[in-house]
Amino acid sequence: MILLDNVHKSFDGKEVLKGIDTVFETGKTNLIIGQSGSGKTVLLKCVVGLLEPTSGDIFYDGRSLAAMGKNERTQLRSELGMLFQGSALFDSLSVQDNVLFPLRMFSEVSDKDKIKRARYCLDRVGLTGAYTKFPSEISGGMQKRAAIARAIALNPKYLFCDEPNSGLDPLTSIKIDELITDITEEYQMTTIINTHDMNSVISMGEKVIFIYEGEKGWEGTKEEIITATDHHLREFVFASKFFQKSVELSKK
Protein backbone atom coordinates (compact mmCIF):
# COMPACT_ATOMS: atom_id res chain seq x y z
CA MET A 1 0.00 0.00 0.00
CA ILE A 2 1.17 3.53 -0.82
CA LEU A 3 -0.42 6.43 1.05
CA LEU A 4 -0.22 10.05 -0.10
CA ASP A 5 -0.63 12.64 2.64
CA ASN A 6 -1.38 16.19 1.44
CA VAL A 7 1.22 16.11 -1.35
CA HIS A 8 2.07 19.48 -2.89
CA LYS A 9 4.56 20.18 -5.68
CA SER A 10 5.59 23.56 -7.03
CA PHE A 11 8.01 24.66 -9.76
CA ASP A 12 9.34 28.23 -9.66
CA GLY A 13 6.47 29.32 -7.45
CA LYS A 14 3.77 27.68 -9.60
CA GLU A 15 1.82 25.01 -7.73
CA VAL A 16 1.33 21.90 -9.88
CA LEU A 17 0.02 19.50 -7.22
CA LYS A 18 -2.38 21.00 -4.68
CA GLY A 19 -2.67 18.71 -1.70
CA ILE A 20 -3.24 15.17 -3.00
CA ASP A 21 -4.56 12.66 -0.46
CA THR A 22 -5.18 9.08 -1.53
CA VAL A 23 -4.28 5.43 -1.00
CA PHE A 24 -2.99 3.06 -3.70
CA GLU A 25 -3.99 -0.43 -2.63
CA THR A 26 -1.91 -3.62 -2.60
CA GLY A 27 -2.83 -6.31 -5.11
CA LYS A 28 -4.87 -3.90 -7.21
CA THR A 29 -4.40 -1.90 -10.39
CA ASN A 30 -4.55 1.75 -9.34
CA LEU A 31 -5.00 4.14 -12.27
CA ILE A 32 -4.21 7.85 -12.49
CA ILE A 33 -6.10 9.67 -15.24
CA GLY A 34 -6.42 13.30 -16.31
CA GLN A 35 -5.88 15.69 -19.18
CA SER A 36 -2.41 16.63 -20.40
CA GLY A 37 -0.99 19.21 -18.04
CA SER A 38 -3.24 18.17 -15.16
CA GLY A 39 -0.31 17.10 -12.98
CA LYS A 40 -0.68 13.33 -13.17
CA THR A 41 2.83 12.74 -14.53
CA VAL A 42 4.30 14.98 -11.82
CA LEU A 43 2.28 13.00 -9.28
CA LEU A 44 3.64 9.69 -10.55
CA LYS A 45 7.21 11.04 -10.46
CA CYS A 46 6.73 12.17 -6.86
CA VAL A 47 5.43 8.75 -5.85
CA VAL A 48 8.34 7.00 -7.57
CA GLY A 49 10.83 9.35 -5.94
CA LEU A 50 12.06 11.06 -9.10
CA LEU A 51 10.72 14.36 -7.74
CA GLU A 52 10.60 15.56 -4.14
CA PRO A 53 7.21 16.93 -2.98
CA THR A 54 7.33 20.56 -1.90
CA SER A 55 5.33 19.52 1.14
CA GLY A 56 3.36 16.53 2.36
CA ASP A 57 4.60 12.96 2.51
CA ILE A 58 4.35 9.57 0.82
CA PHE A 59 4.28 6.35 2.82
CA TYR A 60 5.32 2.97 1.44
CA ASP A 61 3.63 0.42 3.70
CA GLY A 62 4.02 2.83 6.60
CA ARG A 63 7.56 3.98 5.72
CA SER A 64 7.87 7.75 5.27
CA LEU A 65 9.65 8.71 2.05
CA ALA A 66 10.52 12.13 3.48
CA ALA A 67 12.22 10.53 6.49
CA MET A 68 14.26 8.00 4.50
CA GLY A 69 18.03 8.31 4.40
CA LYS A 70 20.24 7.36 1.45
CA ASN A 71 20.50 3.67 2.38
CA GLU A 72 16.76 3.34 2.94
CA ARG A 73 16.03 4.96 -0.42
CA THR A 74 18.46 2.57 -2.12
CA GLN A 75 16.59 -0.33 -0.52
CA LEU A 76 13.27 1.13 -1.64
CA ARG A 77 14.49 1.40 -5.25
CA SER A 78 15.16 -2.33 -5.25
CA GLU A 79 11.48 -2.84 -4.38
CA LEU A 80 10.25 -0.76 -7.33
CA GLY A 81 9.48 -1.93 -10.84
CA MET A 82 9.07 0.67 -13.60
CA LEU A 83 7.47 0.32 -17.02
CA PHE A 84 8.32 3.41 -19.05
CA GLN A 85 6.14 4.87 -21.80
CA GLY A 86 8.51 3.99 -24.62
CA SER A 87 9.60 0.68 -23.03
CA ALA A 88 13.10 2.23 -22.61
CA LEU A 89 14.94 -0.94 -23.52
CA PHE A 90 18.68 -0.70 -24.20
CA ASP A 91 19.08 -1.06 -27.98
CA SER A 92 22.59 -2.49 -27.67
CA LEU A 93 21.51 -5.28 -25.31
CA SER A 94 19.60 -8.45 -26.09
CA VAL A 95 16.16 -8.95 -24.60
CA GLN A 96 17.63 -11.26 -21.96
CA ASP A 97 20.40 -8.80 -21.07
CA ASN A 98 17.83 -6.02 -20.72
CA VAL A 99 16.01 -8.10 -18.10
CA LEU A 100 19.31 -9.00 -16.45
CA PHE A 101 20.24 -5.32 -16.07
CA PRO A 102 18.43 -4.65 -12.74
CA LEU A 103 19.42 -8.09 -11.45
CA ARG A 104 23.08 -7.28 -12.03
CA MET A 105 22.66 -3.94 -10.26
CA PHE A 106 20.71 -5.03 -7.20
CA SER A 107 20.75 -8.83 -6.84
CA GLU A 108 23.50 -10.71 -5.01
CA VAL A 109 22.63 -14.20 -6.27
CA SER A 110 24.92 -16.11 -8.64
CA ASP A 111 25.09 -15.31 -12.36
CA LYS A 112 23.44 -18.65 -13.05
CA ASP A 113 20.49 -17.77 -10.83
CA LYS A 114 20.23 -14.30 -12.39
CA ILE A 115 19.93 -15.84 -15.84
CA LYS A 116 17.41 -18.34 -14.53
CA ARG A 117 15.32 -15.51 -13.07
CA ALA A 118 15.54 -13.42 -16.27
CA ARG A 119 14.36 -16.33 -18.39
CA TYR A 120 11.55 -17.11 -15.94
CA CYS A 121 10.30 -13.53 -16.26
CA LEU A 122 10.54 -13.61 -20.05
CA ASP A 123 8.68 -16.92 -20.13
CA ARG A 124 6.03 -15.41 -17.84
CA VAL A 125 5.30 -12.63 -20.36
CA GLY A 126 5.33 -14.95 -23.36
CA LEU A 127 8.82 -14.24 -24.76
CA THR A 128 10.40 -17.69 -24.47
CA GLY A 129 11.82 -17.57 -27.98
CA ALA A 130 13.17 -14.03 -27.80
CA TYR A 131 16.06 -14.32 -25.33
CA THR A 132 18.82 -13.46 -27.82
CA LYS A 133 16.88 -11.00 -29.98
CA PHE A 134 17.54 -7.26 -29.84
CA PRO A 135 14.78 -4.68 -29.32
CA SER A 136 14.95 -3.62 -32.98
CA GLU A 137 14.17 -7.22 -34.00
CA ILE A 138 10.87 -7.52 -32.12
CA SER A 139 7.50 -5.78 -32.35
CA GLY A 140 6.31 -2.90 -30.17
CA GLY A 141 4.09 -5.25 -28.22
CA MET A 142 6.96 -7.64 -27.61
CA GLN A 143 9.16 -4.74 -26.51
CA LYS A 144 6.49 -3.78 -23.97
CA ARG A 145 6.40 -7.38 -22.72
CA ALA A 146 10.19 -7.39 -22.39
CA ALA A 147 9.96 -4.14 -20.41
CA ILE A 148 7.38 -5.74 -18.11
CA ALA A 149 9.70 -8.74 -17.62
CA ARG A 150 12.51 -6.34 -16.66
CA ALA A 151 10.16 -4.46 -14.30
CA ILE A 152 9.28 -7.64 -12.38
CA ALA A 153 12.77 -9.18 -12.43
CA LEU A 154 13.47 -8.19 -8.81
CA ASN A 155 10.03 -9.37 -7.68
CA PRO A 156 9.01 -5.81 -6.75
CA LYS A 157 6.46 -4.79 -4.16
CA TYR A 158 5.47 -1.76 -6.23
CA LEU A 159 4.99 -1.52 -10.01
CA PHE A 160 4.71 1.80 -11.84
CA CYS A 161 3.51 2.01 -15.44
CA ASP A 162 3.62 5.21 -17.49
CA GLU A 163 1.20 5.00 -20.45
CA PRO A 164 1.79 1.24 -20.95
CA ASN A 165 -0.35 1.14 -24.12
CA SER A 166 1.22 4.11 -25.85
CA GLY A 167 1.79 3.36 -29.54
CA LEU A 168 0.14 -0.07 -29.44
CA ASP A 169 -2.77 -1.33 -31.52
CA PRO A 170 -6.08 -2.05 -29.68
CA LEU A 171 -5.64 -5.84 -29.59
CA THR A 172 -2.09 -5.64 -28.27
CA SER A 173 -3.22 -3.03 -25.72
CA ILE A 174 -5.81 -5.45 -24.37
CA LYS A 175 -3.16 -8.17 -24.01
CA ILE A 176 -0.80 -5.81 -22.16
CA ASP A 177 -3.65 -4.75 -19.83
CA GLU A 178 -4.46 -8.39 -19.09
CA LEU A 179 -0.80 -9.18 -18.45
CA ILE A 180 -0.36 -6.28 -16.02
CA THR A 181 -3.58 -7.24 -14.21
CA ASP A 182 -2.55 -10.89 -13.94
CA ILE A 183 0.95 -10.05 -12.71
CA THR A 184 -0.39 -7.57 -10.16
CA GLU A 185 -2.65 -10.23 -8.68
CA GLU A 186 -0.03 -12.98 -8.90
CA TYR A 187 2.73 -10.99 -7.19
CA GLN A 188 0.35 -9.01 -4.94
CA MET A 189 2.02 -5.77 -5.95
CA THR A 190 0.83 -2.22 -5.52
CA THR A 191 0.48 -1.25 -9.18
CA ILE A 192 0.05 2.38 -10.24
CA ILE A 193 -0.69 3.17 -13.88
CA ASN A 194 -0.66 6.59 -15.52
CA THR A 195 -2.93 6.40 -18.59
CA HIS A 196 -5.08 8.26 -21.12
CA ASP A 197 -6.66 5.05 -22.40
CA MET A 198 -10.27 4.87 -21.20
CA ASN A 199 -10.58 1.29 -22.45
CA SER A 200 -7.80 0.39 -20.02
CA VAL A 201 -9.61 2.25 -17.24
CA ILE A 202 -12.79 0.26 -17.81
CA SER A 203 -10.97 -3.08 -18.03
CA MET A 204 -8.38 -2.56 -15.26
CA GLY A 205 -9.50 0.25 -12.97
CA GLU A 206 -9.97 -1.34 -9.57
CA LYS A 207 -9.07 2.10 -8.17
CA VAL A 208 -9.18 5.22 -10.35
CA ILE A 209 -7.98 8.71 -9.43
CA PHE A 210 -8.86 11.67 -11.65
CA ILE A 211 -6.48 14.63 -11.42
CA TYR A 212 -7.84 18.00 -12.52
CA GLU A 213 -5.65 21.12 -12.47
CA GLY A 214 -3.41 19.63 -9.79
CA GLU A 215 -6.19 18.48 -7.47
CA LYS A 216 -7.82 15.11 -6.89
CA GLY A 217 -11.07 15.73 -8.72
CA TRP A 218 -12.58 12.29 -8.18
CA GLU A 219 -11.72 8.75 -7.12
CA GLY A 220 -13.61 5.50 -7.32
CA THR A 221 -13.80 2.23 -9.28
CA LYS A 222 -14.22 1.44 -12.96
CA GLU A 223 -17.87 0.61 -12.29
CA GLU A 224 -18.50 3.94 -10.54
CA ILE A 225 -16.78 6.10 -13.16
CA ILE A 226 -19.55 5.54 -15.73
CA THR A 227 -22.20 7.11 -13.50
CA ALA A 228 -19.99 9.73 -11.81
CA THR A 229 -21.51 13.21 -11.81
CA ASP A 230 -18.31 15.29 -11.66
CA HIS A 231 -18.51 17.62 -14.67
CA HIS A 232 -14.79 17.69 -15.48
CA LEU A 233 -14.50 13.92 -15.12
CA ARG A 234 -17.42 13.31 -17.48
CA GLU A 235 -15.91 15.66 -20.05
CA PHE A 236 -12.67 13.69 -19.90
CA VAL A 237 -14.24 10.22 -19.85
CA PHE A 238 -16.71 10.78 -22.66
CA ALA A 239 -14.48 12.86 -24.93
CA SER A 240 -14.06 9.84 -27.20
CA LYS A 241 -17.10 9.04 -29.35
CA PHE A 242 -15.77 5.50 -29.71
CA PHE A 243 -15.74 5.14 -25.93
CA GLN A 244 -19.28 6.56 -25.67
CA LYS A 245 -20.46 3.94 -28.16
CA SER A 246 -18.65 1.17 -26.24
CA VAL A 247 -20.39 2.18 -23.00
CA GLU A 248 -23.79 2.28 -24.71
CA LEU A 249 -23.26 -1.20 -26.17
CA SER A 250 -22.14 -2.58 -22.79
CA LYS A 251 -25.44 -1.49 -21.26
CA LYS A 252 -27.55 -3.41 -23.83
Could you characterize the architecture of this molecule?
With 252 residues, the protein is an alpha/beta fold. The chain has 2 domains: 2-79 and 157-251, P-loop containing nucleotide triphosphate hydrolases (Rossmann fold); 88-155, no CATH class. The protein contains 10 helices and 10 strands. It has helices at 40-48, 70-77, 95-106, 111-124, 140-151, 170-187, 198-204, 222-225, 231-237, 241-251, and strands spanning 2-11, 14-24, 29-33, 55-60, 63-64, 80-83, 158-162, 190-194, 207-212, 215-220. The protein has a 6-stranded mixed β-sheet. A 4-stranded antiparallel β-sheet has the order 2-1-4-5, with helices on one face. Strand 9 and strand 10 form a beta hairpin. Helix 3 runs parallel beside helix 5, helix 5 runs parallel beside helix 6 and helix 6 (170-187) runs parallel beside helix 7. It is globular, with a radius of gyration of 18 Å. The two termini are 37 Å apart. 38% of the residues are buried.
Quick recap of the structure?
The chain is α/β, with parallel strands linked by helices and 252 residues long. It has helices spanning 40-48, 70-77, 95-106, 111-124, 140-151, 170-187, 198-204, 222-225, 231-237, 241-251, and strands at residues 2-11, 14-24, 29-33, 55-60, 63-64, 80-83, 158-162, 190-194, 207-212, 215-220. It has 2 domains: 2-79 and 157-251, Rossmann fold, CATH 3.40.50; 88-155, no CATH class.
Blueprint of the fold:
Elements: E1 2-11, E2 14-24, E3 29-33, H1 40-48, E4 55-60, E5 63-64, H2 70-77, E6 80-83, H3 95-106, H4 111-124, H5 140-151, E7 158-162, H6 170-187, E8 190-194, H7 198-204, E9 207-212, E10 215-220, H8 222-225, H9 231-237, H10 241-251
Parallel strand pairs: 3-8, 3-9, 6-7, 7-8
Antiparallel strand pairs: 1-2, 1-4, 4-5, 9-10
